[in-house]
Amino acid sequence: MAPLEDGPREKCGVFGIWGLPGAAAVTYRGLTALQHRGQESAGITVLRDGRLSTLKGMGLLSHVFSSWNPEELLGESAIGHVRYSTTGRSEPQNAQPLVFRLPAGPLALAHNGNIVNAARLRRRLEDQGAIFQTGTDTEIVAHLMARSKAPSARVALEEALAEVQGAYALLLLTPHALLAARDPHGIRPLQLGVLEGRPVLASESCAFDAVGAQTVRDVAPGEVLEIGAGGVTSGGARGAREAFCLFEYIYFARPDSVVDGRSVYAVRKELGRRLAKAAPVEADVVVGAPEASIPAALGYAEASGLPFELGLIKNRYLGRTFIQPSQALREEAVRLKLNPVRDVVAGRRVVLVDDSIVRGTTAMQLVRMLREAGATEVHLRVTAPPYRHPCFYGIDTSVAEELVARGGVEEVLRAVGADSLAYLPLEEVAEATGHAGRLCDACFTGRYPIPVAGGTGKFELEAQP
Q: Quick one: CA dihedral 396, 243, 14, 251, positive or negative?
């Protein structure tokens, strides 16, 4: 459930454009469409006359750029970033794009994902004299590139990525080119589009819609793109098994995005239909947990023949509740953020459709809210399998003990207080995406496509006092 503390949090959204006047304004609009992917910090770097200029800060995009003077960021090429931290604290020095001065010239870097061998690489680089300025894994890519003797930034990037293991969708801006790269498994999304004949890149197609661009294709797993005066050149190392993050379809991506050729809205609605067939229940009304679960709730209602109602209303003017500093404040914020519609649920048996149960706290509160509003029964139906294993590829669920589903269905049922609970089986979820066999489902199965060693904690790379 995207707006709430209980759900997993994904690292970032990226946007880039090459060769179009007003690039910063276009990037701002694109990042606005990607704000759901990160709300801790935001930033834009623009290229003009061979120089990089950056404006970034903590908070929502609208806050960071509230007093933005367009004269500050003039240029025809830009990259932008919205962040939720999964490696490194939520602090100004970790806000992106990160900007470096390499021997070959300046470089700006924006990253979505997690590098799982970051701690080992950083120790090696520090032993070689590298001085790190941030606590993020992203900075490691720049240090690896700085040591390269390659004749171009693209080749230096390819050499650096040969040493990197993990999930990444990267955008890099240099005085001569915009570079883009996706990890060999394609875990995190990255798409190529076109706006007024100029190349654009974004984490999701909804960002292209926001700026009036057309989607061309997904950047292929393992592909490295170089965009410059000569157009778009493709390179990189491919051949690994594709393992796109299944949770993008279930939870992260905006429903109006198209990911790997599939409408996210259509996939979520199909998940709801399949859930209704797999886990029917005698009830009076179907309610979705706002907002990621609304399409699934509609699908459940259609397949079950039950009416769908907006039984929970979201206050759109509050920030995300998971950034509150204590659990008590987060729970209070959930009540401020969501409110049940008594006329919809009072005296009725309610099917509550949700996309996932991770820590369980929000599901428990929603069930309690519905009961307090007069629901006679609350039956929880989840469009994902039990979330039992931590993610190390760009989702902030790296602590296994926090995952309530590790204890089994009966334990989750007791924790959330519902009358019944059912999950959609993994094979049904994979089939609904149309990409069964080439998805990362490690958070459900524990089968990690990239081996994960120790030293993958969120603050592993932060300087020690």
A: negative
Q: What range does the domain containing 359 cover?
A: 263-434
Q: Is residue 182 within 8 Å of 223, Cβ to Cβ?
A: yes
Residues 6+ apart with CB under 8 A from 452: 116, 392
Asked if 272 and 232 sit in the same domain, the reply is no
**Same domain, residue pair 217 and 279:** no
Question: Are both 155 and 104 inside the same structural domain?
Answer: yes
* Burial class of residue 21 (count of CB atoms within 10 Å of its CB; 0-12, 13-18, 19+): exposed
Strand 262-263 vs strand 258-259: parallel, antiparallel, or unpaired?
antiparallel
Structure-token match 């592993």, residue found: 460
Q: Could you tell me which residues come within 8 angstroms of residue 287 by beta carbon, excluding any fewer than 6 positions away?
A: 297, 308, 309, 310, 311, 312, 344, 345, 350, 351, 352, 353, 370
CA 265 to CA 294: how far, in whole Å? 9
Whole-model pTM? 0.90
Digit-coded pLDDT (tens) for 105-126: 999 999 999 999 999 999 999 9
CATH of the domain at 43: 3.60.20.10
Quick check: 51 and 73 in contact, CB under 8 A?
no
Residue at 450 is within a domain: no
The answer to the question of residue 458 being in a domain is: no
pLDDT, tens only, 162-188: 999 999 999 999 999 999 999 999 999
349: helix, coil or strand?
strand
Asked whether residue 210 falls in the same domain as residue 294, the answer is no
| Whole-angstrom distance, CA of residue 167 vs CA of residue 245 | 10
Q: What is the spatial distance between Cα 253 and Cα 459, in angstroms, rounded to a whole number?
A: 26
Same domain, 280 and 177: no
Cite the active site residues.
12
Instruction: Of 66-70, 319-323, 361-365, give the range with the top mean pLDDT.
Output: 361-365
